[in-house]
Amino acid sequence: MAEFRIPGMSAEPATYRRRALAFLAGVTLLVGTIVVVEQAIPDDSMQVTMSTSTVAGGIQAGASVVLNGSQVGRVTQVSVPVPDVYEVTLELDPERLGDSTDVLTDTAMVSYAPENLFGIAAVVLYGQPGGDPLRDGSTFSPPEPQDATLTTLLHNLSDLQNEAFDPYVGDVLDIANQATQGLLPLFGAVGQIASDVADTQVVTPRETLPQYTQLIAQVRGTVDDLLPGIKQIMDWQAPREPGYLERSQKGLEATAGPFIDDLTRLLADDALGQTAPLMPVITEVLQRVQDTFPDARRNGIQIATLIERLRRSLPDAPGGPVLNVDVVLKSAPGLAAALGLPATRTGGGQR
C-alpha cells in the first residue's frame, strides 16, 4: 500500500503507538487526580429530609430547590419508606442560602411550582417565623404542599374535560337547540308584524309625534289631578297618632279572630239546624196571612193609586198645599152660582 507522508513529519508506526499510549496515560492520571482532590475536599452542602404525604409530578432527583425566589439546592432522592409517606432529600448550598439559614426553620411552608417558563417542577420553600433552624441531617414535616405544577394543571384540565364538560355539553347544546327552535316562531311573528307595520304605515311621524306629545300632556294633567288626593293621603295624621297601629292591629285581629269564629259558628250546620223546627210554623203563619188577605196585592196597588191621586190633588202653593176639587153640580145650580162656577146645562151643557 502506498504511503503518503508530509516531508519532515514522518515517523515510524511504533512511534505513533507510543505517543498515543502516553497521551492516554496522562489523561487517566489527570482524571484520577481530580477525583481524589474532590474526595479530599470536605463537602459543605447541607442535606435536609422533608417528610410529606404528596409529591407532585416532576419532583425527582435533580429537581431544583427554591427559597424565597432564589435557587438554593436540588433534590437528591425521593423515597417511599411506608405507604402514603414520601421522604424527599434536599441538598442545600450554604453559600447560596447566606443569611436565609436562620429563616429556614422546621415551620417552613412548601409548595410545588414551575421553576421557569418551560414548566420544570421545583420544590419551593417559604420561610416562616418561629421554629428551630434546619441543620445538616434535619428532618421536618411541613403541611400538605400546594401543587401548582404544570403536570397537575394538565391533569385537572383533563379531568374537567372528561368528567364535567364532555358528559353535559351535549345535553346543554340539545336544550339550547330546543329553546332556539321554540323561539323561532315568535321571532318570525315579530318580524312579520314589523314588516306589516312598515308596509302599511300611511301616517307620517310629523302627524303622529304631535299626537304623542298631546297624549303625554294629558297624562301629565291627570297626574297633576291625582297629586292633591295623594297629598291628602300623605297628610293624613291618624296613622301618626300614638297607638293607631296598635288599635288597628287589635281591630284586625278581632275581625279575623272572634268575629269570624262567631260568624262561622252561627252559620254552621249545628246552629242553622236548631232553626229547622221553626220552619214549618213560620211557613204555616205566612200561609194563614196569605189566606186571610187573598187580594192583598190588588189592595196594595189600589191604596198606592189613591195616595198618588191625593198627592196630585194637593199641589204645593206659596201658602201651603191647596186642594183641587172638581165637582159636577147637576142638582145644585144655586151652589154653583155661589161658588162662581159655570152653570150646568142639560143636553151637553157646561159643568
TrEMBL record:
Pfam families for this protein: MlaD
Domain Mce/MlaD: 47-95
InterPro entries reported for this sequence: Mce/MlaD (IPR003399), MlaD_Phospholipid_Transporter (IPR052336)
The protein's name: MlaD family protein
Organism of provenance: Gordonia prachuapensis
